[in-house]
Design a protein that fits this description.
By secondary structure, the chain is an alpha/beta fold. The protein has a single domain, classed as TIM Barrel (Alpha-Beta Barrel). The protein is about 40% helix and about 15% strand. The chain has eleven helices and eight strands. The structure holds phosphoenolpyruvate and manganese (II) ion (MN).
């Protein structure tokens, strides 16, 4: 991965004086839910709406997403609010559909990053795209596997790349759902300083009361952005109910976070 400088330019295109904020529900549930959340986020620091429509759940029998139908809801949310849209893709069919519906940012989830053949299939389907592609870390604390996924995408001539740190699973009981192991994203940042680095505090935390602290740590470590699961009725969300925060909480959090300026 030579000349990674170019990787930064997409982030600069946002012309933000604060971190990039991606917000929205864990899952798109209904069209009304997606639109209501998008409208509540519209005039906040969040410039990108997130909503999972294909949900690779750990155990069977849980809500696995509304599927391609949700792409139309995201398109409508973009039209009504001007927010950019993002969703998770987990195979080449998802990529094809997301591109057909002009989704702005595609991300690869933690359960997909562990699988080189699937990552390669996604990279091939995205070959040469000018969409932004974000790669979450693999579920296990394996920097090489994360880097391998990034290299596969970079080799497919995808220049608008970034990474999302969402923590690593561990069998031990800790205060986190997924242990942050901050040294891993820090090492990645040292090796590729021009690769935009976004923190997903929601999946690290697994609970809403520590989202703020995780965001502050990420900003103190010079992360470029935050992806925060946001729902107007978190307790009744169809997935990840315990970790979602309301748009109002997000607004207050962005006021309270100490954000380092370039000149600091
Ligand atoms: C998500 O973003 O809702 C998700 C499933 O995340 P992860 O891939 O980090 O588990
Ligand atoms: Mn989630």
């Amino acid at each position: 991965m030579e000349n990674t400088k170019k990787l930064r330019t997409w982030l600069d295109d946002f012309k933000l004086s604060h971190p990039l904020v991606i917000a929205g529900p864990c899952s798109a549930e209904t069209e009304e839910q997606v639109l209501k959340i998008a409208h509540e986020l519209k005039d906040t620091d969040a410039t990108v709406l997130r909503a999972g429509i294909w949900k690779p759940r750990t155990r069977p029998g849980n809500f696995e997403g509304v599927g391609a139908l949700g792409l139309k809801w995201l398109q409508r949310a973009k039209k009504e609010t001007g927010m950019l849209t993002s969703t998770e893709v987990a195979n080449k069919d998802h990529v094809k559909l997301a591109l057909e519906h002009d989704i702005d940012i595609l991300w690869i989830g933690a359960r997909t990053t562990v699988s080189p053949f699937i990552v390669q299939e996604i990279a091939d389907a995205l070959e040469g795209t000018d969409k932004i592609v974000l790669v979450k870390n693999p579920v296990n604390p394996d920097l090489a596997l994360w880097l391998g996924a990034i290299e596969r995408l970079y080799s497919a001539n995808i220049k608008k790349l970034g990474v999302i740190h969402r923590g690593f699973s561990t069998y031990e009981k800790t205060r986190y759902r997924n242990n942050p192991n901050w040294q891993i994203p820090i090492e990645l940042q040292n090796r590729f300083p021009d690769l935009p680095l976004i923190c997903d505090p929601s999946h690290i935390a697994g609970r809403r009361d520590i989202i703020f602290d995780i965001c502050q740590t990420a900003l103190d470590l010079n992360f470029d952005g935050l992806m925060v699961e946001t729902h107007y009725d978190p307790d009744n969300a169809w997935s990840d109910a315990k970790q979602q925060i309301t748009p109002d909480t997000l607004i207050q959090m962005m006021v309270d976070l100490k954000i380092r300026k370039e000149t600091d």
